[in-house]
Amino acid sequence: MATADRVEKPSDKFRSPQSRNGVVQPLLTDMYQINMAYAYWKSGKMADVAVFDLFFRKSPFGGEFTIFAGLDECIAFLQNFRYTKSDLEYLACVMDPGVEKPFFEYLSQLTTTDVTVMAIHEGSVVFPRVPLITLEGPLIVIQLLETTLLNLVNYASLLATNAARYRLAAGPHKQLLEFGLRRAQGPDGGLSASKYAYIGGFDGTSNVLAGKLYGIPVKGTHAHAFVSSYSSIDDLHNRELRHASTGALHDLVSISETYRTQVCELLKILQSEASEGEFAAFCAFAIAFPSGLVALVDTYDVFKSGIVNFCGVALALHQLGYKPIGIRLDSGDLAYLSNTVRTLFGQVAIKFDLPWFEHLTIVASNNINEDTINSLNEQNHKIDSFGIGTHLVTCQRQPALGCVFKLVEVNGQAKIKLSQDVEKVTCPGKKTVYRLYGSDGRSLIDLLQLSSEAPLSVGQKVLCRHPFQESKRAYVTPAKVEKLLKVYWKDGAVQQEMPTLLEIRDRVIAALASLRQDHKRNLNPTPYKVGVSDCLYNFMHELWLQSAPIGELF
Ligand SMILES: Nc1ncnc2c1ncn2[C@@H]1O[C@H](COP(=O)(O)OP(=O)(O)OP(=O)(O)O)[C@@H](O)[C@H]1O
Ligand SMILES: O=P(O)(O)OC[C@H]1O[C@H](OP(=O)(O)OP(=O)(O)O)[C@H](O)[C@@H]1O
Ligand SMILES: O=C(O)c1cccnc1
Ligand SMILES: [Mg+2]
Which of 76, 478, 484, 493 is the most exposed place for a label (fewest CB within 10 A)? Predict the structure, then answer.
């Protein structure tokens, strides 16, 4: 009996990619891709087979590393790639009236079944000129994918890299919260920012929809409006809270007032200077969230009001069997304020014999960027958690990553794109990418070679050359050889287990931990080496000469 119908399809074996973005569809592209598709079709190039590389030329933010992100969405896009009837009707309206009807018939049949995608794992540390994704298959189809794939990778990788830099600056133990939705580039920018900030090493987001769609931990404190909306304790229509274990009702406000008086005496602060409205607001929040109090203490005066009000309510919560979380600072000198607050918490801890009080969480926000964190580190701040919005999601220091999508081969014939700018000359042909490791386990260099070359192996000495500078070359005898490009999509099916966001996030953490410190440092980091094999070097330069006509001087 024939067994063909029992052959297990790869798509049955692996978890599907997790696109949740309805905007990602075949028409999310540049018009010129469709125009080119028509011209290819008119000239009979339907059977042409091409290879394209997607790569960037320079790491962002003045750094020497990039986190590759967005692959999951790319694979989901390929999986769902199909023009709908209404897409084709729309194209027929906007394209030149001379475009022949059978072209739209042809488009209606297009899928990515014949496209093979090789890619580096999402969450890897990657470097300039290395293909992150290579696509092989029908020229027309791959051309039609260009813009969408670039859109899916560029911001994702930029944001994940930005987030990873904030993580490196803050250190592994600080909590990093993404607060950027209100400042993000539109709704979709906001969602993507939350997703890729998490991948890059943030712990949570304030963005509720991102939490729902992607399973990212959602966190939130309260705003100045909440604090200033209360004028006095009379605004509280409920003053009671049940004891966490006995369930008995207690007047939280009175207990908090008693403690606040003691705290004022201890810290030598006039109780009359503390805001009654702020006190009422903290009581209200504590009654609503007795185990989740993070009080925003800078609406009035941090020390004369915010801290004493918070300490009063926090001690009352403790008496009723709960543990407050801490405070948030959103203005002023965050190093000075966090240090002073920590000292005051220490005094309260001693006075009330509650050692944990000294270690309550101090959250800081307010226009924080990577430089601010580095500067705060130098000032020995006492912040436990950073809430970061604007500069993270808008990628203040560099608003775009320049990933490009270049044709490197058609029908087995290598293609090169020349440029006056040597760095922009493309690396022709279908290639294999290796990461070569030294005996200390650290990666030494990424090496591109032609796919037709013999595979590299451990212990085999290999000449690695700079792609453009003839004199720059080195022999490497790798202790470990890693092939970076894996088959992700082939024969219309996903070929790898697609990782969860958490797994991608773990990959980023591990990849950065193993990257040499000098490549990661903030000021003048050492460039990571990306080389080409001797064979690829010679091939590329011969093709370059063949493609560049010799000029004549008159
Ligand atoms: N100790 C510090 N070292 C370096 N930068 C800091 C320090 N403390 C705060 N910052 C940063 O300095 C900037 C202060 O900005 P700004 O002057 O607008 O704040 P502010 O006046 O304190 O707050 P607001 O205007 O919201 O009341 C912020 O970007 C903040 O992150
Ligand atoms: O500063 P970011 O990194 O963007 O972080 C998010 C900011 O958003 C909130 O207030 P908002 O800025 O809306 O008002 P405020 O500056 O008046 O507090 C919050 O208090 C932070 O300051
Ligand atoms: O939860 C917060 O404190 C928060 C959320 C978004 C923006 N700013 C602050
Ligand atoms: Mg602000």
Answer: 493
